[in-house]
């Protein structure tokens, strides 16, 4: 295993940038990134100099090789990143409430806050991402032909989006991360313009 310390790797964005470069290095079979230890681990016949060069190409200086380190949080295998940065700790989180039904008219604006909540599922308290304090989020009742604005604030601890399953709307408001929009960063916000041209339940 090749283990390399990258001092400036301090965010999920830096993990993604480094992972994208290193996973393309010939001979990389498994790529594991320990964000807490700021260490990149590679399994396979890749040349250490090629791995270090890929990290450099991502814009990060390599500090040193680390022997015997134990990798954890993010794993990339076959070029597909699997992030495990969503905390499971429920300590101090508010309990999820029941979703509300909101009646909205054409031209209305809804403020939607995303954040972590605690919810009991099958006898276990788990951490979930809630919408205005509930899971699932509120039910919106909107007349056909209306357009509303939904101002989303990300109070969660992960970058995220809101995807509007089945609605026929402008592509830039569809909420598919890295496809139709950049994820909403932690503490950031984004306003969706949502149209309801068709009758139905979505």
From TrEMBL:
CDD domains: HMA. InterPro entries: Cu-oxidase-like_N, Cu-oxidase_fam, Cupredoxin, HMA_dom, HMA_dom_sf. Gene3D superfamilies: 3.30.70.100, Cupredoxins - blue copper proteins. SUPFAM superfamilies: Cupredoxins (SSF49503), HMA, heavy metal-associated domain (SSF55008). Keywords: Copper, Metal-binding, Oxidoreductase. It comes from the Bacteria. Residues 1-63 form the HMA domain. One of its GO terms (molecular function) is oxidoreductase activity. This is Heavy-metal-associated domain-containing protein.
């Amino acid at each position: 295993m090749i283990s390399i310390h990258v001092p400036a790797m301090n965010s999920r964005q830096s993990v993604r940038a480094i992972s994208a470069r290193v996973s393309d290095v010939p001979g990389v079979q498994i790529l594991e990134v320990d964000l807490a230890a700021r260490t990149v681990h590679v399994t396979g016949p890749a040349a250490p100099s090629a791995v270090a060069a890929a990290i450099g190409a991502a814009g990060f200086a390599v500090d040193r090789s680390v022997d015997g380190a134990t990798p954890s949080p993010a794993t990339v295998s076959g070029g597909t990143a699997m992030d495990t940065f969503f905390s499971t700790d429920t300590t101090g989180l508010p309990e999820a409430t029941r979703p509300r039904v909101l009646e909205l008219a054409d031209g209305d604006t809804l403020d939607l806050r995303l954040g972590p909540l605690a919810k009991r599922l099958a006898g276990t308290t788990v951490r979930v991402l809630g919408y205005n304090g509930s899971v699932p989020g509120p039910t919106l009742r909107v007349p056909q032909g209306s357009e509303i604005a939904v101002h989303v604030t990300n109070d969660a601890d992960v970058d995220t989006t809101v995807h509007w399953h089945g609605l026929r709307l402008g592509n830039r408001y569809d909420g598919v991360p890295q496809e139709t929009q950049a994820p909403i960063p932690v503490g950031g916000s984004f306003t969706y313009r949502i149209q309801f041209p068709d009758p139905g339940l979505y």
